[in-house]
Amino acid sequence: MKRIIIVAGARPNFVKIAALMFELKKYETSFDTILVHTGQHYDYKMSEVFFQNLNIPAPDIFLNIGSGSHAVQTAKIMTAFEKVILKTKPDMITVVGDVNSTLACSLVAAKLHVKIVHVEAGLRSFDRTMPEEINRIVTDSLSDLLLVSERIGLKNLEREGVHSDKVHFVGNIMIDTLLANMKTINASKILENLNLKKKKYCIMTLHRPSNVDSKEALSEIFETMELISQQINIVYPIHPRTKKMLEMHGIFKKCEQMENLFMVDPLGYIDFIKLVKESMFALTDSGGIQEESTVLKVPCLTMRENTERPITVQKGTNYIVGRSKSKIMRHVADILCKRSKKGTIPAKWDGKTAKRIVKILKEAG
Ligand code: UD1
């Protein structure tokens, strides 16, 4: 029996571990699974609702770390997670994605000679100003098994000198969760609750430091939102970090007054995905939404200068638009005239990624 710790800390992690926990449960005689929640995200709407929506078992261990600067948050997670490893003595840990919890727990495990499995390995934006890029590079360099969601990951890791024996192309685990929950997503009443009509609105999310931490960037985006809202309703579930920043820079009130902009609290998984699925397009700086919109065949305008998920642009429905007002408005016009690309589903984004991962975990020495 292998003892395996699954680490989750922030919202996108919960969506990824849901499928993995479900699959691992089928092999209770092979794995003693311990779920550790670092508490990086802690609000009900950023954390617990995902456990409820996705039937994730309650964490076995909750580290209750909370927010802080990158160094403080990472250090606190490391200190607490070291105690967990020393006490539980796992054979391996599995980390997902690229958040601070991913990095912190990998560092601890590596120093205590515990095997690390990284799900969603090999993605690179080549932009080291993104905290996630640092987290990806360090986590991958420490990992013993690197499980890749799109083929470019294989290339990136090869270039960095990672031995191919450690690397497996397993597909996209976030899409397992999406496909497994499609029936419930379809049944969501969020459109009725928000008084929205299918394809008569776009959905926006925004939380990256590069977009929300300066007044200039936020003001620029606000101006673009005003232009878009003259053409189509905008539904905007607002991340706590962004809300804080909008309030600090005096833009929140202006947003409240903007006609056709509907700001709502962060939503649970099921309602949020339903909103994406029925929207005319998504406007986002998230990593996961680029992937989810590709599978839902909804056009996505990504307000970043790059993406670590290039398959969503090459095969999917994603466009990288940065903060350029003219670029964004050109795409919006195209989408409203139904001239945007239709997209196809990337390889191994088929709902079977967790199965492939668990097979690899079973075979791992
Ligand atoms: C984190 C991840 C990011 C991921 C995002 C998803 C890192 C470096 N970033 O960004 O990759 O895309 O999660 O949401 O790990 N806050 C609350 N309640 C919460 C959580 C956060 O109010 O439950 C506020 C706090 O003021 C906090 C801020 O949001 O300081 C930022 O939270 P943090 O976890 O540091 O990063 P995110 O921006 O959420």
Sum up the structure in keywords.
seven-stranded parallel sheet; alpha/beta; binds uridine-diphosphate-N-acetylglucosamine
Fold and architecture overview:
There is one protein chain. With 365 residues, this protein is of the alpha/beta class. It has helices spanning 11-25, 48-53, 70-88, 100-111, 131-142, 152-159, 173-180, 182-187, 190-193, 209-212, 215-229, 240-248, 252-257, 269-277, 288-296, 311-314, 325-336, 353-363, and strands at 2-8, 31-37, 61-62, 92-96, 115-121, 145-148, 167-169, 201-204, 233-237, 261-264, 281-284, 300-302, 318-320. The strands form two sheets. It has a seven-stranded parallel β-sheet, with helices on both faces. A six-stranded parallel β-sheet has the order 10-9-8-11-12-13, with helices on both faces. Strand 4, helix 4 and strand 5 form a beta-alpha-beta unit. The N and C termini lie close together (12 Å). The mean pLDDT is 97. It binds uridine-diphosphate-N-acetylglucosamine.
